[in-house]
Amino acid sequence: MRQLMLLSLSFALVANAKVKLSDEERIEILRGLSSEYATAKTMIPRSKKPLVIQSDGLMKDKAAWDDAMKEFGPAARSGELVQITKITIEDNKILFELNHGLKTGKKWYEHIDVGMGGSTTPVGRADQVATAGTYLSLKFPEKLHDIDSVKIKAILKPILDFEKRTVTENYVDQLPEPVKNAIKEKRAIEGMDREQVIMALGRPRNKERRTIDGDEIEDWMYGLPPGKITFITFTSNKVSKVKDSYAGLGGSTAPNLPVQ
């Protein structure tokens, strides 16, 4: 009889282990999803209570989503970028806070800077990202098991697309057409800032700073002779001059020669 009870207890422990996330699995989910960015695939309302998403990726109560939209308006419209700012893992659901939830004050995108070349500039733009937050609840029919961040992203794909766009791609798409085209064509033009030049050409080979009539001037140099050498002059944080020179090529416009 005692052996039978021990065997039953053993089976119960094994069954329970199958429906309980390990610490390692919880950590993987948190690492894989915390602070991640995603593109909204549909209108996502602001809401005080978590809006429920079923384990098949569908809205559990469409009426609740519609009511929240009428009361608080949108947290994100289709195509806007959002960020997961908090995750809470419970027995049979995962709670997500988007863009710091239903709060006021400084918005999430105002905290994000791209820092290169000793200076920073905000990535987020008010017309680029969602400016309000909300809460989502991904609910499962039983206790969480056999789940990881990759599977969760796949489930959420009808609502949030984690692969469609990167932060850099969204940033570039919001730039003026001349600057956007210059970055894609790997060249610098007047009016660019330092970060945009680095996105187009990479880090410079040399830098020189000087002051003329109180203005801070900085020259960046790209290329090696023989071949094209590009000199870029910044006045304050903007490109004021771009000059190409063709060292060792007699003034020709041939591309850089391969390094021997």
Overall description:
There is one protein chain. The N and C termini lie far apart (84 Å). The chain has two domains: 150 residues, no CATH class; 64 residues, Beta-lactamase Inhibitory Protein, Chain:B, domain 1, CATH 3.30.1450.10. It is built from seven helices and 14 strands. A six-stranded mixed sheet has the order 3-9-6-5-1-10. Strands 11-12-13-14 form a four-stranded antiparallel sheet, with no helix packed on it. The chain has a two-stranded antiparallel ribbon with strand order 2-4. It has 260 residues and is an alpha+beta fold.
How would you summarize the topology of this molecule?
Blueprint: H1 2-18, H2 23-33, E1 37-40, E2 44-45, E3 51-54, H3 62-72, E4 74-76, E5 81-89, E6 93-98, E7 113-116, E8 119-122, E9 134-139, H4 149-156, E10 160-161, H5 167-173, H6 177-184, H7 194-201, E11 206-212, E12 215-222, E13 227-235, E14 238-247
Parallel strand pairs: 3-9
Antiparallel strand pairs: 1-5, 1-10, 2-4, 5-6, 6-9, 7-8, 11-12, 12-13, 13-14
The string of secondary-structure elements, in order, is HHEEEHEEEEEEHEHHHEEEE
Give a quick account of the main beta sheet: strands, pairing sense, barrel closure.
6 strands, mixed
Class per helix and strand makeup: alpha+beta
Query: How many domain regions?
Result: 2
Structural shape:
elongated
